[in-house]
Amino acid sequence: MTKTVTKTCIRPEEALDLKSEKPCSVGADLIIVYDPDADRLAVALPAPSAPEEYRALTGNQVGAIFGWHIAQKARSTGQVGTLANSLVSSPVLGKIADHFGLDHEETLTGFKYVSRVKNLIFGFEEALGYLVTPDVVRDKDGISAGLLMVSLAHTLAGEGKTLWDYLHEIEETVGAFASGQVTIRLSSGVAGSTVTTSLRERKLSALVSRSVTRLDDFLEGIANFPKEDILRYYLDDDTRVIARPSGTEPKVKVYIDTEGTTSAEAQSRVTEVESDINELVSSL
Question: Topology of domain 176-283, per CATH?
């Protein structure tokens, strides 16, 4: 039987520092956390090497778990449809769609875009938003996502497996992946566009030791996307780096997605690229 602890009315990104709270005392197998309006979901599991500690899954890991489960179910029932995610979310969902013979679409950030994808059967963005029942709730919804996560964890427990095992199965099939973020905070009144403008002027051919193999400048028009102040770099080890200014605050978010033969290798690359980006930012 899976023991689940649910926390509500707390920001998901702050919610998983629960070392001294109830999860440890009851030996919970799963922690699910909602924000105040319950449209976002955070998930934590006992760490594989230290079950008394809990490790938060990234939004991309949760998105991969949901995407795999929903795609697998679609194939078993003969359903067709599209998996979708915001462009700053991990490319792993596209690989899952390919594996199951489903369509995949990337959108601008926000569920006003994700939810409008035609024939949608699952959509997510890395900022803890998941749309798992598009025929019922056509928006990100933490409640339905949380119920699906509990159901999946319970089914796996009956097979003697955990969500870590499930994630490992996904990575063995489509490749290990990891993601990270660097936030560039600017002085009050300074627009984030000053950073992306500076990056354009630099015409980067490399990010420290990694060569830039491709640059997508969304201000110039990319595919069917509206023109936006977004820069997307592809590096020679298949790492992807996206720089996107905030529309409401003086900051720029840099999203990093890497691949590897193992999760540890992919995470190591994230750490290296984060350091490289900080070095680059200090020189702007």
Answer: TATA-Binding Protein (3.30.310)
